Amino acid sequence: MNKSTTILRTARTYARDLAERVIATFVVALGGVFVAAGPADMFTLSFWEGAFAAAVAAAGSLLKGILARAVGDKNSASAATGV
Known about the structure:
The protein is an all-alpha fold. It has two helices and no strands.
């Protein structure tokens, strides 16, 4: 395996890991917003407000994953070394 293939593989692994983390954060945050709103407040919170709140959380996850690459393993969006 040559160096360019290794670099491409590393970038692909990192991008896949980061995408999974960002999507999972969005889905969990969206569910959390609607559960926290409760049945009585569910109709006062629009879907788009909830989606925006989840998107803010996902954007934070994206930023953290980008910054973590400088600290942790280059193949992972985790700040922990060896992950």
